Amino acid sequence: LLPRLADINDALPGTELRISTSADDTPDFTTPDVDAIVVRGTGQWAGMEAIPLFAEQLTPMCTSEMAASLSSAADLAHVTLLHP
What we know:
elongated; about 80 residues; mainly alpha; 2 helices
């Protein structure tokens, strides 16, 4: 989105686009000046219409030292994982 922000502003003159981020996966429309939200999740929120943008694909990442200690992806079951 950010690399296209200038094009979006050019295409929508007079529209104010504000971007904020959150670790919360629940849409919050309690602010009266919010018209749309892009949020990660299942889209099963009461009273909201959700339109999928794309399929999500998560990829495990680790340091090269940890990678050297793993012999297969199954070894990830025995380490502490940080989740998005």
